[in-house]
Amino acid sequence: MPLNEKLAEQIQKEIRKSGFPLELTVLAALREERCHLLSNIPFVTKDGSIKEIDAVATFFDAGITSARDTVGIVLLIECKTSREKPWVFFEEQWDSLALMGLVSHAKFHTDLIMKDPFTILVGSLNTSLANHHYNQNDLPKSRTYFEAFRDNAGTDIYKAIVNLWHGGQEFRRWIPPLPEKSEYLKPRTLMLHHVIVFDGTLLLASGSGDGDFELTEPRHVLLRTVNTVTDTPNPLRMDVETIVDVVHISHFPEYLKVVNTDLVALRDHLVLIRDSNFLHTEND
Q1: Separation between Cα atoms, residue 186 and residue 71, nearest integer Å
Q2: Phi, psi angles (nearest 5°) of residue 64
Q3: Which one-letter DSSP state was computed for residue 28?
Q4: How far, in Å, are 109, 182, 189, 193, 244 from residue 165 at the CA level?
Q5: What CA–CA distance (Å, rounded) separates 163 from 144?
Q6: For the chain, what are the domain ranges?
Q7: d(CA 135, CA 97)
Q8: What is the CA radius of gyration of the chain?
Q9: Lowest mean pLDDT among 3-7, 109-113, 246-250
């Protein structure tokens, strides 16, 4: 029985209004990268609420560390569409810590055991990780935002951020412990990128607040968030930040190239960690 044309058009209109077409576009771009891809992953948080991550994509390195380690970058991705409500981010004008780079704030999982008080990111400002995109001075950074022409300004942005916070916590639960003295499984080091892929008008507002703001349309913004939902951060410690990449869908293929470059930087950094005295060995 043929579908009523008017009803079919109404259904098509509702589909276009939903975020599903954006998800399909993002998944198609990720499949071209031949990464390990999972989509629409539901999970239950500690408080019993049901949430879903739109995509988890893992880029593995097959380079020179493959004999000793499994190295990867994991993208936790939320897809958001807002055709009528522009997303506005206020540019952070000055932060001396940001000038030194933010890669030391990156989230990660590693099976390598570091000597106290060091982490796998030790020395990252002086190794290949200094070239990670978190350290790009020309990439706009923001802490505050709102959704224009909306009564509850910022609601959808905040919901996406919270979902990524929960997703990051859940991801750590998904990784099983590495068996001791395994002959086949190599220690894993995985860096997490929290990503919002956005389809709509993305704006950056720059100014001091005593006059009109300059509005530009960036393709990529680094959003600096402090996770107060799944973590209990000390506000005086800046390394508790969770960096969120807000990427316009038109820039997403270019962003994936950046991820592959970041992966090489992580691999080369790990080579230095392996050869340093920061790592616990069987002789310690």
Answers
A1: 9
A2: -70, -15
A3: H
A4: 15, 32, 20, 11, 10
A5: 17
A6: 17-274
A7: 11
A8: 20
A9: 3-7
Give φ, ψ of 63 to 5 degrees.
-90, -150
Give this prediction's pTM: 0.91
Exposed, middle or buried by CB within 10 Å (0-12, 13-18, 19+), for 136? middle
How many CA atoms within 13 Å lie on the side-chain side of 253? 5
List, for residues 80-118, the tens digit of each pLDDT value.
999 889 999 999 877 766 666 799 889 999 998 888 888
Strands 141-147 and 220-226: parallel
| Contact in structure between 68 and 120 (CB atoms under 8 Å) | no
- The span from the first CA to the last CA of the chain, in angstroms, equals 74
Distances (CA, A) of 262 to 40, 140, 212, 226: 25, 18, 37, 23
In residues, how long is the chain? Answer: 284
Range list of H helices, the chain = 5-17, 20-32, 96-99, 155-174, 252-274
Report the largest interatomic distance among the alpha carbons of the chain, rounded to a whole angstrom. Answer: 74
Average pLDDT, rounded, for the chain? 86
Supply 157's token pair. 């942005």
Residue 190: CA count within 13 A, CB half-sphere: 21
Contacts of 175 (CB under 8 A, 6+ apart): 109, 188, 190
Distance CA 161, CA 196 (A): 8
Q: Out of 29-33, 87-91, 233-237, pick the least confident.
A: 233-237
How far is it, in rounded angstroms, from Cα 36 to Cα 5?
Answer: 40
> What is the distance between the alpha carbons of residues 36 and 196, in angstroms, rounded to a whole number?
19
Examine the pLDDT at 32 and tell me if it is beyond 90.
yes
Give backbone dihedrals phi and psi of 184, rounded to 5 degrees, phi first.
-115, -30
Tokens describing residue 239: 């390394």
Taking alpha carbons only, the member of 191, 170, 200 closest to residue 243 is 191
